Each structure stands twice: as C-alpha cells, then as structure tokens.
Amino acid sequence: MRIAYSGFMLIPSDAMPTPERVAECPQCLKAMPLCICDSVTPIESRVALLILQHPQEQDRELGTARLAVAHFANATLRVGLSWPSLAKALGRPVADPARWAVLYLGSARAADLLAQDLHAKADIIALTRKGEVAESQRAILGGIEGVVLLDGTWSQAKALWWRNPWMLKCQRVILNPARPSRYGRLRREPRRDGLSTIEAAAMILASLQRRADIAETLNASFERMLARYREVQATTPEIAPRPAAKGNQRSHRRNR
To answer: What gap in Å lies between CA 72 and CA 42, rounded to an integer?
Structure first.
C-alpha cells in the first residue's frame, strides 16, 4: 500500500479523495460547463460541409469542428488519417469531386494575389494546381457543391492533405479574411489568415452562397463559445486552462 504524508498524519493514498470527473457533452465532447449546444441554431445550406479531423487533435476545450457541424443537416465530421476517396469520407456517392472545394494548405496568400489587382474584393479565391488564381472565378465558385476543411494543428492538417491524394481532384480555394481570428489571446495565429474551423466554414459557406446570415450565425456561436470559456476560466481554470506560455504554444493552425 502506498502512503501519502498529509503534514500531520499518515493516510493511505488509496483512501485519499480523488477529483470528480466533469461530465462531457456527448455531442461537442466539451466539459458540460463549456458546452453551448443548447443555443445552436439550425442553418439551411445548399453547399455541403465535410470536416476531416486528425485523430490526435486533442484540444476539445477550444476546438470548433463539432460546433460548426452541429448547425447543418448536410455537414459531416470524420476523424481519421485517410480515406480512399471523397465519397468514402463523406459516406455517400459524389458525382464530381471537382465541384467540391478544399481549403488549400499551400503558401499562397490571398493578400499577395489581390495585390495584383485580381478580384480585389474577393473573400474566397479559386486556385489552379500551381497555386495561381484560376480563370472564370465566378463560374468555378458558383458550381461548388461542397467544402472540405481540415481540422488539426498545422502539421496534422498537412498529414491529412498528403494522406488523401483524392483532394487533388477537388477545387483548391483560399480565404481572404478581413480580420484576425476571434480567438484573440486565447490562441494566437502566426498568420492573419489563420482562422478557427468554424470561422473558415462561416466565411466560405457565406461567400459561396452570398448569404451573410450563415456567417453571422456561425460567428455568433463561436463568440458565445469563447465567452463561456472565459467565464469558466475565471472560476474553474482546471476546466478552461489559460494559454500556454510563449514558446510552448501549439504549432500553427490553418483552421481549427
């Protein structure tokens, strides 16, 4: 039997009280004090959403993939490393993968491309396989039927990209956010276009369908999630930990 010293007397360690495990929401997998699932508003969208999450993605407290999916009837979250095809990942037939957009992980930046006076006010830009601005932007983006987002750290997202070569058949797109991520000090992104998964979904789905209400609803949910996190952080920091010290932060996230 292991013995723990209490300061005045010896107490068997197996007799010492253990912290109670905090219940988790079965939908978002967050600790119940952080859950905002009861405030999720359903959104109708003609563009489907597929989020591929790396299996080692562990940050449930501030993750947004499940929150984003909860808003849509035609949204799917898959956890894993690779799938044989888009159809297998989605769980249903896909007529033409080229009509699905994937948020590109390359080095192309919207700001740099827009500096060339091409599509100067675009929120979303379709790219060629060479990372250049594609011709016929309106026709390409207007024909998009679904969107693929990768959820995880920068290195995890790259692993998903390389392990799923069928993404090469999809239409590559990049976003041109007007503001940094709403994460603020809770999570700092080294690039201005680094967004949370729910922010990326809000921007791309709203832009493709020209529906500001989609972005407003998703971003409002994200802001409620962050507000709840900060409230819990102030009273129960073990459930909502503070950001890691500089130098110990997680690797760059394209979206999360």
So the answer is: 6
